[in-house]
Specification:
alpha/beta; four-stranded antiparallel beta sheet; 10 helices
Length: 254
């Protein structure tokens, strides 16, 4: 399959520190790729480069065949690259429902004037978006907190809410930054099932960072391992698990 996302020799430097060192990778539609590595390996910096939150110093980043490095995060998101953040990116003073509606905004079939005037078309569009948002919250078992402020939710509920908001528009590519953080075991299982369904049934490409190795091994089609900013492995989970370079990266010895 043609690559949905393609990185070629991407390098990111912060002064004298090379955080991402000539990394190349691809993600195809419907493929689940996990990025793992010890702390400081460059995983989050790589995500930030793809999403436009940091500038690259070399290489190319293509999404659906178009160069996206140099674009703003908003421009990249509008093109169909949506991400979650390790430390959360919710609007704390909005309700859970309102946070999902923000994610659905691009799909609301109405214009500003219609919303201001309260036209029938605008009301129908808003009603459909609200119903869709509640459906998504129910799907992830947090429908009962739809009208609660995001700041009042537990850490696990906030994590689920952020994932729901990212999934709301069903973008071609999802970047999930440690999606399982703070989730109870049953929520992790549910998350795995949803990620698989999004990839297999809807063809969404998924690139995720995750420290929960067993989750990675159970959900990923391919695992990419970074160490000191360099890619040291890129293979199916079973092959990566037995890779000496991976063991050395995590344990210091094979």
């Amino acid at each position: 399959m043609a690559a949905l996302l393609e990185l070629t020799d991407v390098t990111v430097r912060f002064g004298g520190l090379v955080a991402v060192d000539g990394v190349s990778l691809t993600v195809s539609a419907g493929e689940i790729c996990a990025v793992i590595g010890p702390n400081g390996a460059g995983k989050t910096t790589l995500f930030n480069a793809v999403s436009g939150n940091v500038a690259i110093n070399g290489g190319r980043i293509l999404f659906q065949g178009e160069e996206i490095h140099g674009l703003t995060p908003h421009q990249i998101s509008t093109k169909g690259v949506r991400r979650t953040f390790q430390n959360g990116g919710l609007f704390p003073h909005l309700t859970a429902l309102e946070n999902v509606l923000v994610g659905l905004h691009a799909r609301v079939d109405s214009d500003i004037l219609g919303l201001l005037l309260g036209t029938s078309a605008a009301k129908r569009a808003e009603s459909a978006a609200t119903a869709r948002a509640r459906e998504l919250l129910d799907l992830m078992d947090i429908g009962h907190v739809a009208d609660h402020l995001a700041s009042d939710l537990s850490g696990g509920q906030q994590r689920i809410l952020e994932i729901v908001r990212a999934l709301a528009t069903e973008p071609p590519l999802l970047l999930l930054d440690e999606p399982a953080v703070g989730l109870a075991p049953h929520m992790r299982s549910q998350l795995v099932a949803i990620i698989r369904r999004l990839a297999s049934e809807r063809g969404i490409g998924i690139l995720l960072i995750e420290h929960a190795i067993e989750l990675v091994m159970s959900v990923a089609d391919r695992v990419i391992v970074l160490n000191y900013g360099k890619k040291v492995a890129d293979a199916p989970p079973a092959q990566v698990r037995a890779d000496k370079a991976v063991l050395e990266a995590y344990l210091g010895h094979a």
